[in-house]
Amino acid sequence: MKVVKFGGSSLASGHQLEKVLDIVVSDPSRKIVVVSAPGKRFGHDTKVTDLLISCAKAYLHKGETPDILDKIIERYSSIANEIGLSEEIIQQIKSDLISLLNGDKKNPDRYIDAIKASGEDNNAKLIAAFFRHKGIEATYMNPKDAGLFVTDEPGYTQVLPDSYTNLYQLRNIPGVVVFPGFFGYNEAGEVITFSRSGSDITGSILANGTKADLYENFTDVDAVFSVNPTIVDQPKEITELTYREMRELSYAGFNVFHDEALIPAFRAGIPVNIKNTNNPSAPGTKIVSQRQLTNGPVVGIANDNGFCSIYISKYLMNKEIGFGRKVLQILEDYGLTYEHIPSGIDDITIILKQDQMDEQTEIAISERLKNELSVDEVLIEHNLALIMVVGEAMRHNVGTTARASRALSEAKVNIEMINQGCSEVSMMFAVKEAQEKQSVKALYEEFFSKVPAY
Ligand code: ASP
User: Fold this and answer.
1) 258 CA closest ligand 1 atom index
2) Counting atoms of ligand 1 from 1, which one is nearest the CA of 198?
3) N or C: which end of the chain has fewer CB within 10 A?
4) Domain named ACT: which ranges (predicted)?
């Protein structure tokens, strides 16, 4: 049994829905279909979710916004027209949306969440109706009825463990089950959404709960690329990678699959297959627990920018009990998350996303480090890019770091920092943002275009 998730671009028009139908009926094991809200039909189009957010905010602040509401209804109505569904379903969607917009505004986050989630909810109803119209047994399933319960954190909720047990019963429903992605219900029975692109997470939770054999995630690319395709032209596609490799590659360029969505599938050992709705016969990319390490040491190179580093040095830091904890406590006090912490005998560097901190926070953190921890030096460096060179096979290969740093030095890149944990699944290079692209190109050239020198 497979859980199949279709993203917004796969559901953006009636023409796309015909493809979805063909994919589902071509394999009877595709039983549970998780759907996003209608996405973009073309480059400058607006996703229904974004229209819903604007609409909710306008209602919160001004009280009404007929033009955005009309645009949303128009999106569903043009899909329904294309696939031959009657006006009745559009009237249902319209009255559902109007009653949500006129709903309780006491808690703005919950209000917005309920409206945001209606994008997937109404789309699931429409798609189930379309399948039935085509003679396929299909049931719309509401997440509350299925028992998908989540924490009370609007916009970034997490699944509650009991949900997995509840969801197993979905297997007993005859025919195809159409399930809206992106949200669950809190214990008080209110709609709460995952973070953006969270339908991937719903699919993974359902795959885990129903003990599916495979989680197929249909999107609009043939496969996951080995490097950011906006930097390297027509890069190699990855046919197979492990959960750990996918996780390490979660920086920019690899966002075809939500990083939180790996966890439920990984815990249940369910492979994930990323596939293309517009080219379903392409094998796509498989994410698995273990793979044959046949294709050289590196499976992919990810990059991202907008990072800064806080360099802290203190003589005899290595002998001071609790030093690291106290540093991290200061970051926690400012609500900051970090990405990496390379360290030396007398120093520690914390790399974090720089948009979390304004100038005042930076000054305050420096002061506290100096006053409370008596550090010798604090240095904050901005505009760093991180490049992750990822591959499980690095562990068994000698000289991968040497190859990477030689490639960077030949490209005249000044490496600001290197970090490799003992898991040896990835190597991180920090470089100045201005040298990010040339670094990625040089590393790609070294590991994917050259004949290996070992
Ligand atoms: N429609 C939601 C979004 O745009 C969730 C999703 O598509 O997965 O973020």
Assistant:
1) 8
2) 8
3) C
4) 389-454
